[in-house]
Amino acid sequence: MDIIDRHFAAENAHDVAATLETYTDDIVWDDVTHPDAPFHGKDEVGSVYTSIIDAIPDVVLECVKRFTGEEGRYVVDESILMGHVHGEWAGINGGGAPVRIRILHVFELRDGLICYENAWFDAAEVQRQITAWKGEG
After folding, report:
1. What is the residue range of 62's domain?
2. What is the DSSP letter of 31?
3. How many CB atoms lie within 10 A of CB 97?
4. pLDDT tens for residues 15-36?
């Protein structure tokens, strides 16, 4: 199994330690929706993953398409993120709302591990889904 498959398998198992094993020690993790991003190093990234799992305890990512470039150095993965937002995510408290969001990851690999990860998703769509579920929209 390649490193990206291992990475998503660890995320879907909610195993932060196994997820961090897919990264280089100097990982840069950049979520464009997160106001404190980018995060540097496994400690910072581990804290963010823990907060995501706390907010969406049943989070699952399902791959739709995956592309590679420069002989596998770069990987772009389009996935669907699904789960119930019980805590705060993307700037809104979910209250248990179900979400289904398209998400794009851009990875850079070095020495068989992920050294850079960039995540893109529509935070406004997260808010629309949560607001509609709560009956506020």
Report:
1. 3-132
2. E
3. 19
4. 999 999 999 999 999 999 889 9
Is 41:27 a contact under the CB 8 Å cutoff?
Answer: yes
Q: How many domains does the chain contain in total?
A: 1
The alpha carbon of residue 40 and the mean position of all alpha carbons in its chain are separated, in whole angstroms, by 15
Q: What's the whole-number mean pLDDT along residues 54-81?
A: 95
Q: Tokens 């990264």 sit at which residue?
A: 23
* Domain assignment present for 137: no
Asked if residue 123 belongs to a domain, the reply is yes
3-state helix, strand, coil in the chain (%, to 5): 30, 45, 25
Q: Give the dihedral of Cα atoms 94, 101, 56, 14; nearest 10 deg.
A: 180
DSSP label at 100? E
